[in-house]
Amino acid sequence: MLLYNASTSKGLRNFTRYLTNTNTTTYSSADVDAALNSYYQLFVQDILDAMDDWDFQGEVATANLVANQQEYVFPTDCLKIKRVEITYDGTNWYVVNFFDINQRGKATDTTTISEDFEETEPFADLHDNSLFLYPIPDTAITNGLKIWYEKEITELSAVTDEPVFAEPYHKGLAYGAAKDYFEKYVEVGKNYNKLNRAVANLNEYREHMKNFYRKKMQDRNYQLLSAYTDYEYE
After folding, report:
1. Cα separations in angstroms, 60 against 29, 41, 76, 147, 193
2. Most CB atoms within 10 A, among 32, 52, 55, 129?
3. Closest Cα partner for 205 from 93, 47, 60?
4. Could you tell me how far CA 25 lies from the centroid of its own chain?
5. Is the pLDDT of residue 28 over 60?
6. CA–CA separation, 100 vs 108, rounded Å?
7. Is 19 in contact with 175 (CB distance < 8 Å)?
8. Which residue, among 153, 149, 133, 150, has the nearest Cα to 141 in the 3D structure?
9. Would you give the DSSP letter of residue 170?
10. What is the rounded CA–CA span in Å between residue 55 and residue 201?
């Protein structure tokens, strides 16, 4: 009987070695972890592609507006921007619209930007890990910028680490790591069937997981009732 928790990093390593009939020498922990984490990233991307309204790794961050500063760096764990709002006066908030700087046929000097953009209809252009605001703030505002985003995962490392998605699909990472191993040694001529089974199982886990996250938000509307009821007695 196999005794492991396939949801932990250690358990996923053990299950990978069980599938591949390897050990710490023939499939090192460093190599297994690299494979597991590559599929971890893939599974998370599958989830993000499958989701609609529900935010799997949703976070909200705020930043201070600095007078005459146009560039603002994203949170370090930002994977995907969902929404940005800004207040130029500390009271009125506006949704930031996104555009590409190539759409603009004019210069981007501060004077021209000030003339062409309104604080009540702000825009932003995304560059690498930053957004550039149009118009540029002329007043320092504490927490004047609010960003909704999907955050990056922390890779599996410690033996007790677990993937952040639903537990029934964790073992799929091990099938991915097994696939990589069989692909490496398929030239030996003994691993074609094992490779095909690993690929089939990997794809099955991915499809089941995507279906699960597609249905995470149900169509039916439920009414939330107060836990307290004011009973009247005759």
Report:
1. 35, 21, 13, 6, 46
2. 32
3. 47
4. 33
5. yes
6. 13
7. yes
8. 133
9. T
10. 27
